[in-house]
Amino acid sequence: MADQMVIEGQKFINSYNVTGIPRVEENGRTGWAVMFALTRALQHELGITALSDSFGPTTLATLQSRHPVIDAGTRHEKILKIVQSALYCKGYDGGGIDGTYNSLVAASVRELTQNMGVDAALADGVTPKVFKALLTMDAYVVTEGGSELTRAVQQWMNGRYVGRRNFFVVPCDGHFSRDVQKALMFAIQYEIGMSDDVANGVFGPGTQQGIRNNLLSEGSSGTWVSLFTAAMIFNKRGGVFFSSQFDADLATRVRSFQNFVKLPVTGRGDFQTWASLLVSTGDATRKGTAADCVTEVTNERAVALRDAGYQIVGRYLSNVPNTSLDKKIKSGELGRMAAYGLSCFPIYQTWGGEAAYFRREQGVADAFAAIERAKYYGFKPGTRIYFAVDFDALDYEVTDNILPHFRAIRDVMNEHGQGYLTGIYGPRNVCSRVAAAGYTSASFVCDMSTGFSGNLGYPLPSDWAFDQISTISVGSGSGLIEIDNNIVSGRDSGQNTYNPQQITADLDVSMDMSRRNALLADVQSYLLNSLGVPEEGGDEGAQSLTYRSTTQSFDILMSFDGLVTRLARTFRMRKAIIQSPLLWEIRMYNTLDVVGDEAVIDHYDGTGISTKNDASTGLGQILAATAIRGRNHCIRAGLIGGTIMDAANENDLWNVWQRLHNDHDYNISTMPAVLIEGAADVGVPQPSMSTSDEHTRLTLARYNGTEGRAQNYGTAMLGLHQVFEKYNAPLRGL
Question: Quick one: angle between helices 403-416 and 428-436, nearest 10?
Fold first, then answer.
């Protein structure tokens, strides 16, 4: 909603005709663009020529020398207008934008500094550090999801330490964040006794030694206890209150935290407990009992790992295409590890190093690939596969990219995973948000990346299974191996028995796109010469009413080649048995199909006059009842996961029909189930890589129905199947 006074502030910004002060949109909405423009305007008024979005040391020092306090005695109209505009942007009354420090401005500044917790520490008015905070998007009241307890700590730190040179006002919004984490580290360094020239907000040797010199236990009191309870609160430890007294209740809460992060349970504020509260690695010298590595675990390395106390090893299901790094599990490696008492948890990662990789389509592909590789190596149902997010994802990237990616993984794993569980590898914030969405059941946390914004200011995820804290070398000679050292929560013990490896060499692979045009030409020739279907339209039946040419239909089919390939490999059937009816139904889509769809929509979600509660729909032209029958058959056979539905129940029918109609992936993914159920219905074996032509014809005929014309459909589709096989078969086993 537009705020008129924010608009006035934006107009004030746009009144400048100064290089380096950009125009802003006059929309009444506060944002970083507005705050940056106000910062540049202030720099200009201070005589700074190199304007910047950053309110840095030069701006701070210049402001301190010229206007150490902005108050009723200040006579600088434009600087006062900047203050007033910023107050409105922060939600306070700026008393108009008239360039005066009037009584409304004074009252708002007092309210602001009280909200910051600095009213008793700083002079009345706008001091340089308050001005710096004013020109940010930070909030000083509790925002949605924030905690009053956290806000109390934020205000206390501001009030106690704002006078130190490098301590700046932190948000008081009730949320733990990277800036608040760094402020807490500064506070600890100040209490250790570090000067402003030494304190740097880093958990270095001096800070660590200072903490070791100030250990806490029941009965302790003072500022160190306040800082310790602050750290506990920031780590979302329930039942902890901000206090300067270390009482029995706090000791109980400390023991709970120590047990959660797998530290010795002492109930004291010892160094390891402090470390786990302050940095993502905790005490990085801790020895874990799990490891992950890109190196093959040979006999000698297995002995070295076992003798070093390791019990579980994370290994990769696949290599990254077109790279030289060979990190995947080797033949016989899992059995060798098991022989030496080592379990394994599988990791799936190809790229995953930037936000652009993560999207729904890639999530579908990754899930299918991970399932296939896990089956290939013989991992049993109950195995959890960890999908990697190997970069410092910002919060909006989690929302826009990673959540849709993992939702797709969840959906495919639930339907096709046959008992495999979904885990995630990534920074704390990523793991926590994906878990909160319900897409994963355990987290493998990359806490070794202490500088990641997704680790700083975020507690350890509640569902953590492995906590990666350091890279070390184990063993010597031929047993030497570099590993990532991981702490284990006990949530996932890995696997140590395996099914026989699955052979995948005879399965279909993706289309060789260098032969795409040749395949299209053969498809066009077959449709025209054998079935009388020209490139566009046609003279038989409803052909004249069709919307798509053969080429357009083929292009659509090829755009789903990845999905069709993965489905065929998952069900271990030929791609062609999916491709042939899919291409045909896409090509034959016509006006009558649209009429049927509209009638179904009207029945459920329109006037209700239509009595038509089902119709073939979507790319594969599948009836909802047919989809339900096919999916139920495959669920009962253990081929897919899911919930049994009732085709006689119109709620089930409508829900499935909508997905078939609106979701191309769901529609195409339903086709194998329909084909499998159809084969069973006509008494022939489930489609496979060795299905005979006659059984293929009968299965394809059943896809069309049970009427006499279905046999003609099956014959026509068998011919199209053979066209696709001409191109698919030579690629198998390459």
Answer: 50
- The pLDDT score that the predictor gives to residue 734 is 65
| CA distances for 348 relative to 315, 452, 478, 590, angstroms | 9, 21, 27, 42
Minimal CA–CA distance to 444: which of 458, 462, 435, 431? 431
| Helix extents (H) in 262-391 | 271-278, 299-307, 333-339, 360-377
Domains and CATH numbers, the chain: 4-137 (no CATH), 139-278 (1.10.101.10), 290-488 (3.20.20.80), 513-731 (1.10.530)
Please state, in angstroms and rounded to a whole number, the distance separating the CA atoms of residues 36 and 21. Answer: 9
- Chain-centroid distance of CA 683 in Å reads 45
The string of DSSP letters for 458-503 reads -PPPTTEEEEEEEEEEE--GGG-EEEEEEEE-SS---B---PPPPP
pLDDT averages per 10-residue partition of the chain, 734 residues: 92 97 97 98 97 97 97 97 98 97 98 98 97 98 96 98 98 96 97 98 97 97 98 97 98 98 98 98 97 98 98 97 92 97 97 94 97 97 97 96 98 96 98 98 96 93 98 98 98 97 91 97 98 93 92 98 97 98 98 96 92 97 98 97 97 98 98 98 97 98 94 97 97 82
**What global pTM score does this model have?**
0.92
Classify residue 419 as left (phi > 0), alpha (psi -120 to 50) or beta.
left
Structure tokens at 145: 């999801």
* Residues 6+ away with beta carbon under 8 Å from 508: 565, 568, 569, 574, 575, 728, 731, 732
Six-digit token string for 565: 């390939």
186 and 166 in contact (C-beta within 8 Å)? Answer: yes
Contact 710, 701 (CB under 8 A): yes
Burial class (CB in 10 A: 0-12, 13-18, 19+), 65: exposed
Q: Cα angle vertex 499, ends 507, 670, to 5°?
A: 45
Give the span between the Cα atoms of 99 and 380, in whole angstroms: 72
Q: Which residues contact 70 (CB under 8 A, 6 or more apart)?
A: 79, 80, 83, 101, 125, 126, 127, 131
Give the count of alpha carbons within 13 A of 248, CB side only: 0
Torsion angle (degrees, nearest 10) of CA 476, 477, 481, 482? 70
Which of these, 384, 369, 431, 373, lies nearest to 406 by C-alpha position?
A: 431
Question: What is residue 40's predicted lDDT score, i.e. its pLDDT?
Answer: 98
- DSSP class of residue 387 equals E
The C-alpha atoms of residue 94 and residue 111 are separated, in whole angstroms, by: 12
Q: At what angle do helices 205-212 and 178-192 cross, to 10 degrees?
A: 60
- Cα–Cα distance for residue pair 444/461, rounded to 1 Å: 9
SS3 694: helix
